[in-house]
């Protein structure tokens, strides 16, 4: 009788252990299958990737702040309009020239040509005479990076009494006005040893290169 009781107890213990093992195994199998499913590689088409990139760019380019920078001279007030994007970039959109508080002329700037991270990275001035005619002109230059630089110069025209954009000036890198010789000098380097020096004269309504010199370039 005692032996029968022992056999029953052993049978019950064995049955419980088998049941517990099956319970432990089942969740592990489910877990493994879920890992396999979540590790499946999702492939996007070129069109889908381009769409995502455009949406991200649109989000970053949202305007979060608008403000103006002002400078007075020549009997005018020059107001440069700035727009700060969500990405942190700042764009200069236009320049309003005011006379006695009223709009005298508006100067247009090409879209996204002056994008910078800080507004002080764009230099604008109204107290320099770049074509040496006795009248100060308005200059706006983005000096950030050699590739992304942009140069704007509006020359004051005595006849029309308006500012006119000078496209030929935009090709001059790092311009410096030399009043004594009435010429514009340009100097910059490409790489560690190559230096470029140019001289320009204002002739027939545009800036013309008159001298060119290269130092440190191997031929």
UniProtKB/TrEMBL annotation:
Organism name: Chryseobacterium indoltheticum
InterPro entries: XAC2610_dom (IPR058087)
Name by which UniProt lists this protein: Lipoprotein
Lineage, highest ranks first: Bacteria, Pseudomonadati, Bacteroidota, Flavobacteriia, Flavobacteriales
Top-level taxonomic group: Bacteria
